Amino acid sequence: DPAVREIPSKKGDVAQLIARIYISQKEYDKAIAAMDKAKATNPDDMGLLKAEANMYYQMGEKEKARQLLEELAEKDPNDAETLNNIGLMYAEIGDNEKAIEFYDKALAIDPEMNNARINKVAAILSNEREIIEEMNGLGMSKADNERYDELDAERKELYKEVVPILEKAIEIDPNNTDAIKTAMNIYSNLGNQEKVEEMKAKLNQ
Q1: How many angstroms separate the CA atoms of 95 and 189, rounded?
Q2: Who contacts 155 (Cβ-Cβ below 8 Å, separation ≥6)?
Q3: How far apart are CA 186 and CA 6, in angstroms?
Q4: Which has the least CB within 10 A, 125, 131, 174, 180?
């Protein structure tokens, strides 16, 4: 069945490989120069743009990497992987609200993208840390006990928020043991023993 077929460009992969070699040698100027040379021949190559963002991320210039990914998302707003990666970068700097926004955008494009779904769960549950720290710092006074109950209710609301997300993740990937274990722990904290046993059964399977 002879035909003329367009083969996707490998320039992005090659440029990324060259840049990685220079980065491993801590020759960052050469890495940037190699990437700029590749981009000069094909500035609209999405693979090259991703490689450039990855290069800056490896160099530790995460703000620059995020900016490049956001530029890439503007050019190709239907790239769920890029949107998920932007979310991860916002999560790294502690901006979980912004991270969740990008995970939701990725899932709107690709509802089967479990990575984004699990990342969203992690971003939501990261708010639990502050709650627990405050709970642990409380005393035994009546006011402290009342505040403890308030914080405990807040924590349980976080758990309730992630339950349907985890259930969907497990539905899509029944072999995702991390999601099952997380769900089991959350059900335990919510006092839902029936669901705990259900998750145990899934793990045993």
Answers
A1: 26
A2: 128, 131, 132, 135, 189
A3: 49
A4: 174
Measured between alpha carbons, how far is residue 161 from residues 17, 20, 89, 115, 190 in Å? 41, 40, 22, 18, 12
pTM for the complete prediction? 0.81
Per-residue pLDDT tens, the chain, 205 aa: give them. 777 777 666 766 777 678 778 877 888 888 888 888 877 777 777 888 888 888 888 888 899 999 999 999 999 999 999 999 999 999 999 999 999 999 999 999 999 999 999 999 999 999 999 999 999 999 999 999 999 999 999 999 999 999 999 999 999 999 999 999 999 999 999 999 999 999 999 998 8
Cα separations in angstroms, 113 against 126, 160, 164, 205 = 21, 21, 15, 23
Q: How far apart are CA 125 and CA 119, in angstroms?
A: 10
Q: What's the token pair of residue 127?
A: 């708010």
Q: Are 99 and 85 in contact (CB under 8 A)?
A: no
Nearest 5°: the CA angle 124, 128, 130 is 125
